[in-house]
């Protein structure tokens, strides 16, 4: 019954907000009048999609990094439709860079930029921090290190993939790629290779061989091609609702305030790269893949493990001033109210995004991009061996 009441409430409010005469400015203000439904928490753990992105950051790879920075949000949005056993699959992304002379030769010119993370703001920040420089590109070494150092899942339906992108010989370095990929197969990790350049050249440089051994896909792309997005009449409104969405996040913890500031800073950085890329980011933030339970009160109350240990003095002391002296009951009620407000805003962004997509289709336009398209096709194909469906 509680689930049905929650659904009915959400539908009623969504219908009200869509009525003519309700402006974006006054819609959020009336939300509190409707908040009654409890937060519903799932009891079973969903499957996880793990993507280790291994990026060549040598001199010639600026275009690849630019694509990764802006197209991350397309990938996240498409992952939002992944279901396993009727549950939304979780998404974790790790980043390695290789082939950069600024990196240590003792480490094979390889650096773990970020271990597996669900923190999309942090993932984006790390991509924006990457800088290219000449170096030696050792594919076998970076694959080997990512397999040994990352915490790979072992669930039956967990989908584990490496995507390695570069443009030099795949067989360079002291660690044979064949032995690295053999480790991947033992861990049920699929290795996909993306050659930045001509298909035949990549084949000659053994990138296709790497994909065949890794039971993955061999792909090529023009890494210097600019990401293409279509401007639509809905973009500005999505960005306005994104600002309201940011206001539903309530920081706590040692890094909470900094994380809250980083959320807005990443909006600005992505928008500087491309307004439409920030529209995609806003849509991603309205999905279940955008989770911040380590610093946001509302997400923490939704996370069973985080909620159990939340009411400690060190957490309460870092809440905003308006909440620090509230009781546990008052804080919980506040978090539920903010959750309802957030859900309504996210639903509005999703609704506008559907209109955006329809507009692009009716105009016979396309936003398909190199890195994003290559990765998504491989992910969807490889998920077919497990119990995944795609909305």
TrEMBL record:
Residues 335-362 form a coiled coil. This is VWFA domain-containing protein. Transmembrane segments: none annotated. CDD domains: vWFA. Keywords: Coiled coil. It comes from Nonlabens dokdonensis. InterPro entries: vWFA_dom_sf.
